[in-house]
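## tool: complex_structure
## caller: assistant
## args:
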Amino acid sequence: MRLLNKLTHGAVWLTFWAVVFLSPANAAEFGTLQADKSSLTFVSKQMGVPMDGRFRKFSANIVFDTAKPTTASARFELDLASVDAGSSEADSEVIGKPWFNVKSFPTATFVSSAVRPLGGDRFELSGKLTIKGKTQDLVAPFTFRQENNSGVFAGSFVIKRLDFAVGDGIWSDVATVANEVQIKFHLVATATRK
Amino acid sequence: MSALRYTRTALWLHWLMALLLLVLFAVGLYMVDLPLSPQKLKIYSWHKWAGVTAFLLVLLRLAWRIGHPAPALPPAMPAWQKSAAHGMHHLLYLLMIAIPLSGWLMSSAKGFQTVYFGVLPLPDLVSKNKEIGETLGEVHEILANGLALLVAAHIAAALKHHFLDRDDVLSRMLPFLARQR
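## result:
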């Protein structure tokens, strides 16, 4: 009788914790970007010297359900004129016609097509990146971690600027400004649903 | 010991640096007003690499100079002139060290790290800061202009010694000019 009691007691608790840990109620969906905590930076190489830059204005629509990561989607809009290329001379240069040409192409966009879990907290994002009217497929790994009520997406990828005609004409000489540009993102989103 | 000329090594270092500093000064004057272009980035990089080279050469030169004293000045030279000559040489060395240092620090403060010949990164001794960068830029320019003036005086003095005083001050550094005694 005592044994049965113990077993029943144990089973009840096991069920309780199973519900707590495994129920979809514990999964969270993240979506609203916290602009002040997020950053979008890049590293380009000039005469072999790495140069840091960043974008001050960007927005994102992220849908990321921790229970169903494969259904995640993301859409980014980046205000190219908000670039900080390291100096005022560089800033006014890169918004100009040979580089971003912000008069004709003010925004760069990224639209995701798929998210693939890579195991643990690692994922792979695929989609299409459009800069200066030119669209290229992009695959970028990222990590996801949950901090209190926020989700943190972080990753980096390398694009070739000439694929997007960024820095054409005299600047297409990649010995001076390298073709490869590393882009790093650190996006913090609040939970939209629990 | 009263050698009549500098050592061969001192001669080489002096004239190599004279050429290098002349080119650095002229290129520096030319490049600052260029509009941004790949050419400008290349010229800036070469100016920085040549400046680092000049810095290394002046250190080598100082080390050599400490081990190999300069030949004596002509006995007929008044004491004040000897003092002025010594002061002048100290100033020249000081500027030859301070100018590349200010350029290196300016590059760091402006956020453009110096990577010697695109291979060897020099540490950034100051972190990026626009105001400090601009101040160091002005310091670099003032010191460079100062060195140009001192060099002009240095050349004038050498010529004065050779053609007016007719002593062997210049031929200590240009032995082929040595007069027959």
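## assistant note: The mean pLDDT of chain A is 88. Chain A has two helices and eleven strands. Handing back to user.
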